[in-house]
Amino acid sequence: LASVGGAWAFTAPASDSFALVEVGAPRVAVRHEGRVVGRTDARGRIVFAGLRPYDANRIGIAIEDLPLHARIDADEAIVEPAGRGGAVVRFAAAHGAAGEVRVFDKNGAPLERGVMLVRDGDGARFPVGAEGRVYVSGLAGESVLRGGGCVVRVAARNLGATAQCAGDGDDP
Q1: Cα-Cα-Cα-Cα dihedral of 144, 118, 152, 134, to 10°?
Q2: Up-side HSE of residue 19: CA atoms within 13 Å toward CB?
């Protein structure tokens, strides 16, 4: 039985160091030095042993296992736990609404394919596809996207609809 980061879990005998990995999404593969050591539980957590104490251990997750609407800042972390000690690794998967919106310029034409729209605040980037289609993720409220001379507001309620550019860089 191991305790780390306020969580208790059954694990292999901990003659080495161990880690608690929190992803926030279930069934995500977790890797130690590139080798899959297991998948997160229903609460998005896993505890496993076998880390090298007092040495850099590379812990990663399989981003392809994350839900489409999840966003993370990094898919790998380096931890150096103490001997027979634990480390907590958090890959905070930010959730929010996700979907497609069609963006039209101020003249009513679809925004040009290849334009990169950048969200104010977190800098998330969304490329424009054919016919002004943009797949936007991580919408927790209303977001302002800028790029290609366009400024547009997008919210979860707008997904599946169209959005009109408000201008050429001025506030929408």
Answers
A1: -120
A2: 27
